[in-house]
Amino acid sequence: MRPPLLPRLLAPRLPFYYGWVVLGCLCLAGFARQGPAVAVLAVFVVPMTEAFGWSRVEIAGAVSLGGLIAAFVSPVLGPMLDRRGARLILCLAVLGTGLSTMVLSLTQSLVVFYLLFCFARMVWAGPFDLGLYGALNSWFVSRRTIATSIATVAQMSGLVALPMIAQVAMQDGGWRSGWIAVGATVLVVGFVPVWLFLVRRPEDLGLVPDQASPGATAAAPEPRFSRAEAMRTRAFWLLSLFTVLVFPVQAGVSLHQAAHLIERGLTPIAAATVISVFSAMTAVASFGVGFLPRRLPLRYTLAALAVLLTMGTFALIGVASVHGSYLAAGLFGLGIGGIMTLLPVAWADYFGRESFGAIRGVVLSVQTLAQAAGPLLSGVLRDGSGDYTLSLTVFGCLAGLAVFVAFGAKLPPRIEPLAQPVSFP
């Protein structure tokens, strides 16, 4: 596949690796990804429920349903990512997100809201995830964790900025103006850089991952697994099990954290500051793990992060003060922030770049289902027992099991390179 014109003209003239330009495009796309994020929707909950008389459950249901749809779409999109690259997927993702969020300003019924927001959440959970991490892992190998950390911080900046943009727009024009502002920001920030500068992989420009010079050789051979070969390895199923164990914890604890703290006696304002500590520590871990030595096996790092997740979850059970809540939420944030950054890196490190989309697409469906199950499980256990002690105990046990699963996820035996060289048209 022939790269766009501008990268072909620009790459040979740059004094640095063109992958950093690609990373910049992905940071902007990651910022734009957050248009239908829960943090953005939260700004619209009160004005939209007041306008239409909807319940909070009806609005929240669109988030879960969008994630469930992504679970079915992701395995289909994965092979397309491997064949065509991330440019087409991310351009369509940005367009779909921007237009659907703008059209939400015309909402007149719950059915229309579900059609538009579920579509946007599906794009958020499936195509965006595949496109962003597929491109990152194609362009970076030895610097993969650093590049992923930078892209993760860019996505978090979208979580901070877009709710503020929506809120400012709503002050003058109401919630309909807020959705227009969100959609317009997504389109302006995300589309043009991806369309003009994103290239499928470095080989399309005569480069290799992490290397700026045409004809350079990679520092070490990469694993090359097809999806079928990966699924026959022990590592695939252990990493999948690790995903199934940690993501219900991430979603279930995060969503109900403030309610639990208030039930434990904290004021709503104090609970909000605890959530801020959790978010800050998530960002610190997401960025910091990118600078860990690459020679350290990822399974040890993932196990250590799962230990922090376990400690934070159990510590939340008995919190009785603001300071204890800060400690528990901080540990939880460090654990989940590091896991969410390193897990996509692990799939590429274990199985290579060539079939990353096909492999990641299967696992992403499992991940979205696990995330959808967490809040539901937490709510059911809370309603049945009267508080969050039982649900936090269950989640703490799941995180503890993930520690041992991570330790067992050794690198699979490396597949020998194909007899014929792979061409990149």
Short description:
With 425 residues, this protein is an all-alpha fold. It contains 15 helices and no strands. Helix 3 packs across helix 8.
Query: Which homologous superfamily in CATH is the superfamily of the largest domain?
Result: MFS general substrate transporter like domains
Q: Count the domains.
A: 2
Name the helix and strand elements from N-terminus to C-terminus, one letter apiece.
HHHHHHHHHHHHHHH
CATH hierarchy, class of the largest domain: Mainly Alpha
* Structure annotation, total helices: 15
Beta-strand residue percentage: under 5%
Structure classification: mainly alpha
The strand count comes to 0
Distance, first to last CA? 5 Å
What order do the helices and strands come in, and which of them pair?
Layout: H1 5-10, H2 19-33, H3 38-52, H4 56-84, H5 86-103, H6 110-125, H7 127-139, H8 144-197, H9 227-230, H10 234-263, H11 268-288, H12 298-317, H13 322-351, H14 356-385, H15 389-408
Helix pairs in contact: 2-7, 2-8, 3-8, 4-5, 4-6, 4-7, 4-14, 5-6, 5-7, 5-8, 7-8, 7-14, 8-11, 10-11, 10-13, 10-14, 10-15, 11-13, 12-13, 12-15, 14-15
How would you describe what is shown here?
The structure is a single chain. This protein has 425 residues and is mainly alpha-helical. It folds into two domains: 5-205, MFS general substrate transporter like domains (Growth Hormone, Chain: A); 227-408, MFS general substrate transporter like domains (Growth Hormone, Chain: A), CATH 1.20.1250. The chain has 15 helices and no strands. Helix 4 (56-84) packs antiparallel against helix 14 and helix 7 packs across helix 14 (356-385).
